[in-house]
Design goal:
about 200 residues; single chain; three-stranded antiparallel beta sheet; mainly alpha; extended; 8 helices; about 50% helix
Amino acid sequence: MAAKKIKREEPVTATMVEAAFGLLPVKDEPKKRANAVSTYRYIGDSQIAFATVGMSGELILDLRQVTESNKAHAALWGFVQRITDAAAKSRNTETGASATPEEKHEAKRKLVDHYMSGSGEWSPARSGSVGETGGLTLRAVAAVQGLSVADMQERITKMAEKKGVTTRAILASLTTLPAVVKKMDELRPASGIDANGLLDELNSL
């Protein structure tokens, strides 16, 4: 007997799974993608309110009334979306170069290994590699504070847990500090391209 195909209008996103399992902070403001006609917002840690632009009223999905089998199905689709998105967005943020197949596979592997480790964190801790914006910020903060990258990562993780935010949010805040920005500029690899030379070359074309 052929396997029964599950019909669905729209894939369950990782964000929906985050909300389903209480992995997101409570958000009351509507969320909407650019040019989208649908919005959603979280109500506590067990409900999602969906709305359609131009229509009145909301559709409330109460996860407490959803069967475990459908929660499991949502989790599967959510993890597919989450892990494939990691590869789709993976690129060198410093050079702008597209990621190689090996880098895309590595981005997916990191998430798979993270979730299989039993960690309760939705996002894995940044490794501090040069190819990641978070890694560059982490290295810069560590240098400013005179600590190792590993020690600084541990401190940022503890701070994020204490404040109830992600490590990415902490790192993003730190990039606004002049001393960190200056150190990031020092640590960022030179592009090897003379901007003035480019202008001269463009004028000659």
